[in-house]
Amino acid sequence: MILVPTVVAITLGFGAFAVFIDRVERNNLIADIDDELIRAERATLARGNPSEADPSPATSDGTIRDDPTQSDQADEVDPPVGLIVGPDGQILAEGGDENPFTTSTLIDLATRSGTTTVDDPHYRVRATLGPDATMTITALPLDRFDESLRNFRRTLIGGGLVILTLTTVVVWFLTTVVVRPVTRMAATATRIADGALDTKIDPPSGSRETADLAADLDQMVNRLRSTIEDREHSAAEATQARDD
Q1: Three-state DSSP class for 216?
Q2: Cα maximum dimension of the chain
Q3: Parallel, antiparallel, or unpaired: how do β-strands 81-85 and 135-141 relate?
């Protein structure tokens, strides 16, 4: 039956496509987060290394003052964590969101540079080594990323189910309208070829092409019957003439 292998093939094909699209979407979301981390890191470095025009970017307790130009954005997105950490994990300055990391995690992050994902808590972290052996750590929570990815996957699965359902209906319809009438006519033609010339050819309820094929087959069988009858009649007359 053509329906089952067709549906299986489409399911496998869409599954492979969905995995590819999911990976592309995940990489795009991560790339957006990494770009945001780079921008936040620059702000942290600027506030941690004041210019002469702004000699006091940090308070007396080491907390970096927030940039007033970022206040509007803070209400819309999760503010990044901005830390300047010493080799021993000591926080020299901080700003942005509250530090979610333990001392052991900060020590581990202070020993490496680059961008990575921390699972507990679930943050995307960028660590950059400074000229004075300090480490600038910028982090963003991945809660919004996880929710966006879940919504995308739900949409992808829902769309896949709709496509699979529509495909199944279309293939079933084509099988019913086209394939089955042709299969029945093929079986009829086989019986006729085996000598059953009295086989009735019912007009199929399929497409115009199958109806034309049935009419041609019926006409061919009628001519074959007529030819056989003529030959039998001629043979009978010849036999009767010899007997006379």
Answers
A1: helix
A2: 139
A3: antiparallel
Please state the pTM of the whole predicted model.
Answer: 0.62
Cα pseudo-dihedral 151, 156, 162, 165, rounded to 10: -130
> What letters, b where the CB count within 10 A reaches 16 and e where it falls short, cover 98-119?
ebebeeebbbebbeeeeeeebe
pLDDT along the chain (244 residues), means of 10: 79 91 94 92 69 39 43 55 85 85 86 87 90 87 93 93 90 76 77 74 66 78 80 77 70
Q: Hey, how many other C-beta atoms are within 10 angstroms of the C-beta on 124?
A: 21
Q: Is 135 exposed, middle or buried (0-12, 13-18, 19+ CB in 10 A)?
A: buried
Element (DSSP H or E) covering residue 83: strand 81-85
Residues 135, 128: contact at Cβ < 8 Å? yes
Q: What are phi and psi of 50, to 5 degrees?
A: -65, 150
Q: What are 201's two structure tokens?
A: 């050819």
Distances (CA, A) of 161 to 18, 21, 28, 153, 172: 12, 16, 25, 12, 16
Name the token pair of 141. Answer: 């929570």
pLDDT of residue 36: 92
What backbone phi and psi angles, to 5 degrees, belong to 118?
A: -100, 130
Collapsed DSSP state (helix, strand, coil) of residue 121: coil
**Type of residue at 141:** P
Cα three-residue angle 78-43-125, rounded to 5 degrees? 55
Strand partners, 58: 64
Query: Within 13 Å and on the Cβ side, how many CA atoms surround 19?
Result: 5
Reduced 3-state DSSP string for 88-143 = CCCEEEEEECCCCCCHHHHHHHHCCCEEEEECCCCEEEEEEECCCCCEEEEEEECH
